[in-house]
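FYI - complex with uridine-diphosphate-N-acetylglucosamine, inputs then prediction.
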Amino acid sequence: MKEYIINGGRALDGTVEIRGAKNSILPLLAGSILTDEITVLHNCPNISDVDSMIKILEGLGSKIIRNARDIVIDNSMANKSEIPAYLAKELRSSIFLLGSLLSRNKKAKVAYPGGCDIGLRPIDIHIAGLRELGIEIQEQGGYIFCNCQNAKCADVVLDLPSVGATENLMMSSVFIKGRTVIRNCAKEPEIVDLQRFLNAMGAKIKGAGTSVIVVEGVEKLHGVEYTPIPDRIVAGTYLIATAMCGGNVELINVNPEHISSLISKLSKTTCKVHIKNDRILIKSKGRQKSLDCIETMYYPGFPTDLQSQIMAMQTVSRGTSVIVENIFETRFKTAGELKKLGADITIKGRVAVVKGVKELIGGEVHASDLRGGASLVLAGLVAGGQTVVKDIYHIDRGYEDMSVDLLKLGANIKRT
Ligand code: UD1
């Protein structure tokens, strides 16, 4: 098993270039099967979630070539419509394939998805939305069987603004004749990116980024060359790391608007954040004053995917911070590992109270999910002595080897 060994206490200095967003690339890969023509995605990170999605597409018959950071997809032979359990379990995003598989093959058999263990993560909203479109669905033996011979356009209202369900419904309605309206949609930037991607392929979708998306069915989509938006969570992770460690770090290829909720929090600390087009420069002297309250929300609120990292920052800030997790109920699991390093955290349900300590003390900790794992690396960067972060395969799902970027910034970190 691979691990990170970190000797903490160094300031960070230098530049990091941000790659395409995992949470965009996964639905875009799913969407690529809506055409038989070639799709090319640029600036894709080497992360294991992308590898898993590629494996799933190859299982359907797609031919995929990775050329440095480009992914070239030829779906002309992707005639299978089943995603077996052993592949779906690797990745929650396999559920996005339900919508695009149905649009392509009019039927699908998909095993229940896997992904991070951060709460219940049901798929009831996906299923209810697809049923509204006239898609027949049966759940049996760990599989979802769908048939869309009788699919029809509809006015669908989501119970919650689920990111995945919004994306799934966009992809399942692209070929349905007439106008499909999806209400109470998620407004995340990755949904706007999916709309831009599908429209570049010839779809007629509008409204992404607002709570109502309208899809006018078209007959066919064509190939496309596309560059996904930069990863706002990776960018946010490095901003928080610099705020904690101190130093001067410039991020290249970011969309500052996508992380405005984090930037607004950082502006309440003594960090200086300068934005210039697609670059963000952060200057920090290290240990910050605690943020009073951080509450995760749907976009444009504070992202649940940065909650663990901001918690790591609060463990070494001056004062007490309250963190409320509104999206995923078990996302405080990492607190137990942070406590092993000396953090003072009390959890009651969806609320965590973090009393900042002067210093964390290095030790052995285990990643149990992707973002929680990243937060342990951040904690290791400021802890006194040596920290060993185990089970980093969780981190590899969404970050290219973090040690490469952090070493460049002057951290003492080794991947073994
Ligand atoms: C996506 C992101 C994930 C991020 C999350 C919230 C991808 C690949 N993953 O996950 O990184 O943390 O958005 O921003 O894009 N829910 C239901 N029923 C459903 C679907 C969701 O109750 O059918 C609930 C979930 O349990 C959760 C909330 O809705 O409490 C939001 O989940 P959702 O937006 O669907 O997250 P994902 O699409 O899985």
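Residues 23, 26, 92-93, 119-126, 160, 162-165, 186, 190, 304-305, 327-328 surround uridine-diphosphate-N-acetylglucosamine (CB under 6 Å). The mean pLDDT is 95.
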